[in-house]
């Protein structure tokens, strides 16, 4: 844990694993995050963060609707989003285009809002709230 | 409330199996449940993609262990899946009212008590619900040190997560157990199954052959994919190997613990030797992971290269081949 961004991804969750003691017998020992796990997990998260900022760029330049951000941030692809919202993939694909997204019915908006746990107004106004797993119990939107 | 003993485990499925059996009076360790359930495996399946990266698995398909446990003579496991979410929750409540601890398959993404960074769309996580207080369910999640709580709304979402391995509200509980397990025969059966998987598969991507295949592919990644993508692939292999639930070394250590326990159970030191060799294989996997981590962090020594790592993986393959051939002979002697 030399660098701050390489923090233990389990947030201090003490997991257990098997290891051999001095007598050669296996025991269950407690310890959070072995070093290489943290390195490769941090690598995976850096990749996700890259995708999120690419999505944000696209939205800023008007090439994608805010749905693109919410899907990327919640690690959902078109197939998964379609399944969760109970519609065809091509519809989700269409809604990634700002032109179509801005013309969505309140009903369609509500489905996305429920999935990403934000309000329909957030989606309509293109507010980019943190993903589901960043939400704390108090549900306070935080600004970066 | 149900007096359920929570025991932390290294892997969720074997942990749930062991905890449920122990609750029903059959005292069994996690490693034993893992071994009897035939949990060890290897598969490199590049045509299945996770986040655009090839699937590498060090254990049997999700649900395999529970399936094997349910098939043990004398055990009856009630298993249900649902279409209707409200019915699934009602059924859970009814079982809890009847003082039955219930195992659930869930998606981790929707479980609020999980550490943020582990909330991927992985849908084959197992846990036991043993009570309800107000709107919260009391949960014994085997990878956590203590029991946890989860609001009903979130648990419902987790039970009906979509995507690969969708749980469809799956719940299960033991309705009948024998007074004592016929351990020796279950052990032999479990080991035979794993030997067959590791040695006997006709497919080159499965078992020991799969490990060798991975080594060959990994060696070529920098040339085929470019160094950046190669590093991502490499990180993914290590992540699958060392993620929570593997007990490190891609489940090899957990299986070693199982073999040691078998050696005591069956008074057979041969199994202890097999465990020791498997420990060496686990150590070699870890050695590979350490080198891979240095590469992923751009802190590679000059001697950290893909061919060297491929060599380490081949070493794992030959050690595991040795172990499972020995075990196969042992299994054949038993009957």
Would you write up a description of this structure?
With 144 residues, chain A is mainly α. Chain A folds into two domains: 4-38, no CATH class; 48-134, 434 Repressor (Amino-terminal Domain), CATH 1.10.260. Chain A contains seven helices and two strands. Chain A has helices at residues 35-60, 66-73, 78-85, 89-95, 98-101, 106-116, 120-124; strands at 15-20, 26-31. Chain A has a two-stranded antiparallel ribbon with strand order 1-2. Chain B folds into two domains: 12-176, Cysteine proteinases (Cathepsin B, Chain A, Alpha-Beta Complex), CATH 3.90.70.10; 184-334, no CATH class. Helix content of chain B is 51%, strand content 16%. Chain B has eleven helices and eight strands. Chain B has helices at residues 12-23, 30-36, 64-70, 85-97, 152-159, 183-199, 207-225, 227-242, 252-266, 269-296, 306-334, and strands at residues 40-50, 53-59, 76-80, 102-106, 125-133, 136-140, 148-151, 171-176. In chain B, the strands form two sheets. In chain B, strands 3-8-4-5-6-7 form a six-stranded antiparallel β-sheet, with helices on both faces. In chain B, strands 1-2 form a two-stranded antiparallel ribbon. Chain B is globular, with a radius of gyration of 21 Å.
């Amino acid at each position: 844990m030399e660098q701050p961004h390489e923090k233990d991804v389990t947030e201090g969750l003490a997991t257990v694993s098997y290891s051999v003691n001095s007598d050669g017998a296996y025991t269950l020992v407690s310890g959070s995050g072995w070093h290489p796990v943290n390195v490769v997990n941090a690598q995976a998260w850096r990749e996700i963060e890259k995708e999120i900022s690419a999505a944000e760029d696209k939205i800023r330049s008007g090439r994608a609707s805010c749905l693109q951000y919410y899907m990327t941030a919640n690690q959902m692809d078109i197939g998964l989003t379609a399944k969760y919202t109970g519609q065809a993939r091509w519809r989700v694909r269409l809604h990634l285009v700002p032109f179509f997204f801005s013309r969505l019915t309140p009903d369609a908006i509500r489905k996305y809002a429920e999935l990403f746990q934000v309000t329909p107004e957030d989606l309509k106004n293109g507010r980019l709230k943190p993903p589901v797993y960043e939400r704390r119990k108090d549900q306070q939107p935080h600004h970066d | 409330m149900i007096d359920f003993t929570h025991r932390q485990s290294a892997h969720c499925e074997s942990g749930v199996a062991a905890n449920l059996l122990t609750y029903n009076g059959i005292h069994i360790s996690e490693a034993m449940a893992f071994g009897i359930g035939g949990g060890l495996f290897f598969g490199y399946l590049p045509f299945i993609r996770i986040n655009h990266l090839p699937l590498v698995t060090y254990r049997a398909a999700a649900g395999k262990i529970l399936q094997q446990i349910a098939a043990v003579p004398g055990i009856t496991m009630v298993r249900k899946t649902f279409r209707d979410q409200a019915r699934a929750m009602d059924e859970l409540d009814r079982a809890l009212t009847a003082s039955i601890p219930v195992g659930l398959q869930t998606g981790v993404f929707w479980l609020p008590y999980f550490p943020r960074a582990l909330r991927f769309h992985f849908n084959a996580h197992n846990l036991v619900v043993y009570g309800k207080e107000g709107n919260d369910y009391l949960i014994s999640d085997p990878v956590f040190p203590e029991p946890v709580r989860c609001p009903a709304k979130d648990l419902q979402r987790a039970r009906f997560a979509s995507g690969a391995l969708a749980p469809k509200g799956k719940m299960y509980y033991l309705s009948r157990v024998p007074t004592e397990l016929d351990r020796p025969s279950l052990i032999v059966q479990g080991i035979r199954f794993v030997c067959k998987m590791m040695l006997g598969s006709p497919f080159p991507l499965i078992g020991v052959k799969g490990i060798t295949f991975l080594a060959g592919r990994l060696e070529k990644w920098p040339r085929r994919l470019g160094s950046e993508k190669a590093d991502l692939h490499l990180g993914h292999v290590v992540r699958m190997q060392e993620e929570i639930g593997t007990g490190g070394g891609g489940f090899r250590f957990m299986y070693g613990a199982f073999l040691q326990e078998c050696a005591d159970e069956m008074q057979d030191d041969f199994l202890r030797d097999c465990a020791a060799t498997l420990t060496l294989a686990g150590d070699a996997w870890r050695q590979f992971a350490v080198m891979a981590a240095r590469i992923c962090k751009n802190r590679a020594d000059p001697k950290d290269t893909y061919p060297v790592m491929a060599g380490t993986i081949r070493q794992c393959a030959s050690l595991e081949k040795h172990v499972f051939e020995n075990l196969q002979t042992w299994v054949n002697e038993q009957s």
